[in-house]
Amino acid sequence: MDTKKEPSLLQILGLGTAILLVAGNMIGSGVFKKITPMSAGLMDSSLILWAWVIAGLITMLGAFSFASLATTTKEAGGQFQYFKNVFGGFFGFIYGWSFFAVISSASIASIAYVFAQSLGNLLGIPPILEAYSSYSIAGVIFPFQNASVKLIALSALFFLTLFNIRGVEGGGWLSNIVTGAKILGILLLIVLGLSYNSNTSALPTPDYIPNPTQWGDFMRISAFFTAMLGAFWAYDGWVNITNMASEFKNPTKNVPRAIIIGTALTMLLYVTVNYAYLQVLTPADFAHLGSQEGSIAAVEVAGIVMGPIGITLISILIMISTFGATQASTMSAARVYYQMSKERYFFKPFSHVHKRFRTPYVSLIGQMIWACLLIISGTFDQLTDMLIFAAFIFYGLGAVAVIRLKMLDKLQFTFGYPVVPLLFLLCCIVIVVNAVYTRPLESLTGLGLITLGVPLYLYFKGFGAKS
Question: Rounded distance, CA 253 to CA 234, Å?
């Protein structure tokens, strides 16, 4: 089939939708629960807030860097497109493969699973197939474990895939509505936390006060960076809007604006809501929650301030938030594989566009199948441990791309050059090195999955290109 006869994607989404899609991709489950492991590692309110602030500032450096790259192309594909154009097809493909195998699909599977857990708990859905829960494949994969939760997650992905196939405008409106609800819910949490603080007129007393002479201790600094990984998981997703560039009006202007505004808005919400959390519970309290199965920080805070009504409201908020993040990721990520296939870097059917709805339906279905397999296998938790490590390798490569294009005088507009991309590159290097030091198994496994893309690249540019 001649791909030139394929219908094209519709360029109909505006700046407002773009901004909310950035926020929708970022706001998932992390903002409601990551303060728990961060508290366990730092045990200090100030350090926890600084971890959120610094992670947010680093994310903003990345947003400014990739906003510069977004001015260079109107095509879909995001980082795949940037790396291909700047470094060549091999680097573009390796990113695209990593995005499909780990970065995006595992994230979609993980967030859909959290949504399913929230819905199951809220409605009291009973477990199913418990008699087969101990059945395993090679002692690693347990397909029937938590079967009721998995069934809900699979159903959610199936529904969202069908919904997004039926049109990008409908998907955009759904993201707008859900993201608006998420922002209102977080604002409610902020008001609850700050009101509780004003009523008691007392700040939580840290259970651990660090000795300033220990700041030179490598292990202490490493613990701080490790705690920031939790914040980075919550911030991740800001760059996904670039995957849909060809479906936005005036993409070389609106996409960069959306990245910066959406990321800044989310950072403000995250830092403020975590400050509000710490007005209700101490870091020691949050650390203790980590030892309790199924406890979620935001739910506990709401329960203390509002009682059972607060628990129900925030449980509904988390359900809406994870559903919205799954929707935003499902909608944007499929465009990467569509663009890769269109340029013969991926399986040919992924470039097909639905003749009626003008959406990359094969790419959406293929993405759904892989994410569903990850949910059934239960391996997405292991993959998400590698997600931030893999993502920051490519974020750093994006900073290098900005520097290279500017040196070649091929980048007309940059944000804070050369300070912004150089600082972001340095931060990426530190984060990747620290991840290798603190989580060597996950990091090396992530590298292994990335290098699996090498033989696939040879296939697509050899046999695949001739087909």
Answer: 26
Continuous segment of H or E residues that includes residue 110: helix 105-123
Count of domains for the chain: 1
Measured at the CA of 445, the angle between CA 29 and CA 132, to 5 degrees, comes to 65
State which amino acid sits at residue 83.
F
Whether the bond into 210 is cis, omega within 30 of 0: no
Query: Got the DSSP string for 425-448?
Result: HHHHHHHHHHHHHH-HHHHHHHHH
| DSSP of 227-287 | HHHHHHHHHTTGGGGGGGGGGBSSHHHHHHHHHHHHHHHHHHHHHHHHHHHTTTS-HHHHH
Measured at the CA of 242, the angle between CA 443 and CA 2, to 5 degrees, comes to: 105
Which tokens hold the place of 403? Answer: 């520097």
Cβ atoms of residues 452 and 97 within 8 Å:
yes
What domain range is 135 assigned to? 3-466
Residue 208 has pLDDT above 50, yes or no: no
Measure the CA–CA gap between 107 and 103, rounded to whole angstroms. Answer: 6
Cα dist from 144 to 134, 149, 162, 259, whole Å: 8, 10, 25, 40
CA neighbor of 403 nearest in space, from 13, 86, 114, 1:
86
For residue 72, what is the domain's CATH number? 1.20.1740.10
**Tokens standing for residue 232:** 């980075």
**419: confidence class by pLDDT, cuts 50, 70, 90:** very high
User: In whole angstroms, what is the distance from residue 68 CA to residue 429 CA?
Assistant: 20
For residue 73, the SS3 value is coil
What digits encode the pLDDT tens for the residues 343-393? 999 999 999 999 988 899 999 999 999 999 989 887 666 666 667 778 889
Greatest alpha-carbon pair distance for the chain in Å reads 71
